[in-house]
Amino acid sequence: MIRSYLWISLFTVCSFNIYTSKSWSLNEILITGPKVGLAATNYTRNPDLFTRHPVEAKILESVRKGTLKAQEECQHQFKWERWNCPADTAPFDQDFATREAAFVQSINAAGIMHVVTQQCSSGQETFCTCDNSRNGQPGGYNWKWGGCSDNIKFGDELTYKFLKGLTSGKNENAAMQLQNYGAGRQAVARNTKMVCKCHGLSGDCSIRTCWQQVATFREIGQFLKQRYKKAKFVNYFDGQLRQGNDARTRELAIFSKKQLAFLQKSPNYCREDHVLNIKGTKGRQCIRSKNKNAMTTSERKSCRTLCKSCGYKVKKVTVDVSNTCNCKFRWCCKVKCDKCFTRENNYYCVR
Amino acid sequence: MAGVVLENLSWKKLIILSLILLMLLVTFFLIGGLQAPQPNNVNIIIGTKCYAPGRYVSREKWHIPRGNNSCEKLDSLRPDNAKIISKGITDKQIVFAFWIPGPRDGYELKMHPRFQYMMSVLQLDIIYQPQNPVGPNPVMLLDFRLGYRNEGDREGDWKLLAESAEDRKLVCTIAYNEKNETEPGSQYDCELLHAFEISSLHHDYYLLNLRLPPSPEKNIDIGQIDDISLVTIHQNGGFTIIWFSIKTFLFPCVLIVLVWFWRRIQQMCRPPNLLERTLFALGITMSILNLPIEWLTFWLNIPFMLLLNDIRQGAFYAMLLSFWIIFTGEHIMDQTERNRLKLYWKHLTAVIVGCVCLFVFEMCERGMQLKNPFYSIWSSEIGSKLALAFIILAAVAATAYFLFLCVMIYRVFRNISAKKSTLPSMSHMRKKYYMGLIFRFKFLMLLTLFCAALTVIFFIISQLSEGQWKWGDENLKLEYSSAFFTGVYGLWNVYIFGLLSLYAPSHKTASGANADTDSQEEEVQLTNVPSEMSALQSFAAKADQD
């Protein structure tokens, strides 16, 4: 409960900037913006409130789902790292400006965009609009004439406007947030697969229609993890993020929108630190197995990164675990399994 | 009189005509590129997972994704889902419901007869789990029910349009990481499955209910299905209007020139020769293709229109290919007596075999779909082999055709160069006759190559533009795919228009400038040209032997 409260609590601080929007649904937020924040804090207490403002409710629901998805993926990606994306991470906290913060910001933007894009085609009541612009100019097509615009574009625009509304001020932290949000949105937009279908004369390829398929969120998470590893340490001057702090090399400091940026060096995640709210790696579990090939690189390195290089020892605890085995699956729902007992070795970091 | 308009036209007039036709051509491309939207619109709908309670679930009941009569929805189909465990839900009780089209902006979108047709494919999201992987060559049994409803109808009053249980082969691949291992939770990449194709959209809303019923051999080893999306493709309304308008404009244009052409031939005091008859037939097939009967679909429910269009298009292609063969054959200039259809039986057989193959294939696929929209020839083992056999046979026929055509063109060019060397020694009349023949042939050759090259170039451009999705490119001014369709359609119309007007028999005598007294004599001479030509040929052959 606390966890979801913290992830949602962002709305209490959100102040919506004035932005121009094309669709009524976004205008609706613009008008009732502060109310959205208010409503969101009451979310768990009075769900009926939302039926009165279905559009905002749906956007907020998507945002909530997006941040949860992001958190889940973040924890998956950082399972075997010293910083393991703890549940009480405040994703939109502006003082949080480390490399890890950069990842959290980007995956949140990606999560929201992913959920919004998907819910456009969910077949349920939706706030997605039919973009009636043509070549960027408004007043072009309607559904009967030219169909509907791309869902990915809509998701991108909505996420951009929503997150921009959350970013307050014009300082280095706001600049870093916008940079990482942009990188997150790009991760969704870039990781699409084009699927085509031929349907010409007798099914030949003289008529071919293609559409974009958004990647699974796991793939986007993996993509952002790579970006995290290559994240850039930046400085803020002249109202812009720049690599390096030498004014003379300013021209050289080209900074791509795709990259993650951070302002502070990460603290030591090995030791517990109450001020910085770091739990440390003591007591964390790591993985060892005889079958090295069956493990991923981060799994293989886990005991080294979590315990040994932090100055802890690895302790082996042998337990008997009941597992399911010989399962018979159908495509849905029911699983018929046997219960098996296996002896497993678990490893923990101890002093 | 043997000359055609082309030979007797002054350069000035020819250039003016060419420029007019070229401008017309550019107009067609621009109309498609600037006015029309994309030819087709894609609508992706993620299936709503409905729970049909009860032990014996009625197949007749409609499961509706939204609205007052919506079904009981499930968030997830995973075995660890709380609702699935608590209610003991089985795979029999799951229905995937798709309401086409999806809602936007808080409004229900509606389908429209303008959209002409709708075809759809299923896209499966199957998650890899080590205990439950996708087996080798699994077969899915898909129980489809397609219904429709119009705007005024009572909510929930869906009527059945078609239903069928179909087998589909599931082909999935999965990515491996650097350790040759697949991470649990990653998604399979599955081939799209054909869902349905309907060629008349006369209702506002369509509803597809899909079940995957349990069966001893099917729906087994298909992994854990997370979601099923329906991708529907329909023609855009704006494109339809522009397309029909172009046809409506072109139909009278070609028809007028066709009538003029035929009257010109009627004015001759001889029966029309083979080439003229072929050209006339080509004009007729073009006019049939141009005939804008599609407008009727706006008011009438004509499901066979798509099939009819394909047949009309196929007939035109067959005629065009036959025309090229006959035209080339008539210009070979050897000693053989031509002007008979019989001579071309080999070549025409290739065309006919190819077209019949494609026609049979078309009837098996689209013809069957009139009865059962879910039918796909590719889903059954025998069907796909049969379809492949037809396509291979058609390809063989096409290859044979092009070989024939190439050989013929080679012979024409060989004879042309032979003729050219003997030209100076010929009499004035014969020289003029041959030069006219050569010019006619070369002109058509160039024109055809120009049209074919333009078609190929625009086809490639449109395919590339369709295939390359430009992220954030707002400055895209031209709709290449639409421009391709309207432009190429206009191109071949202009081609036929040009042929009919330039290759019609000329009123002017072959040597208009000569004295009038000679004309009678010349006419006699020219009608005898074939025999004269063969005499000349044998003479040339003799000279070669010497």
TrEMBL record, chain A:
It is found in: Secreted, Extracellular space, Extracellular matrix. One of its GO terms (cellular component) is extracellular space. GO terms for biological process: canonical Wnt signaling pathway; cell fate commitment; neuron differentiation. Pfam families: wnt. One of its GO terms (molecular function) is frizzled binding. InterPro entries: Wnt (IPR005817), Wnt8 (IPR013301), Wnt_C (IPR043158), Wnt_CS (IPR018161). Keywords: Developmental protein, Disulfide bond, Extracellular matrix, Glycoprotein, Lipoprotein, Secreted, Wnt signaling pathway. It comes from the Eukaryota. PROSITE patterns: WNT1. Belongs to the Wnt family. Ligand for members of the frizzled family of seven transmembrane receptors. This is Protein Wnt. It comes from Mytilus coruscus (Sea mussel).
UniProtKB/TrEMBL annotation, chain B:
One of its GO terms (molecular function) is Wnt-protein binding. Keywords: Developmental protein, Golgi apparatus, Membrane, Transmembrane, Transmembrane helix, Wnt signaling pathway. One of its GO terms (cellular component) is Golgi membrane. It is a multi-pass membrane protein. Residues 48-235 form the Wntless GOLD domain. Signal peptide: none annotated. It comes from the Eukaryota. One of its GO terms (biological process) is Wnt signaling pathway. It is found in: Golgi apparatus membrane. InterPro entries: WLS-like_TM (IPR047843), WLS_GOLD (IPR053936), Wntless (IPR009551). Its main location: Golgi. The chain crosses the membrane at residues 14-34, 241-262, 274-293, 313-332, 344-361, 386-413, 434-461, 481-504. Residues 236-507 form the Wntless-like transmembrane domain. It holds the Pfam family WLS-like_TM. Belongs to the wntless family. This is Protein wntless,Protein wntless homolog,Protein wntless homolog A,Protein wntless homolog B. It comes from Mytilus coruscus.
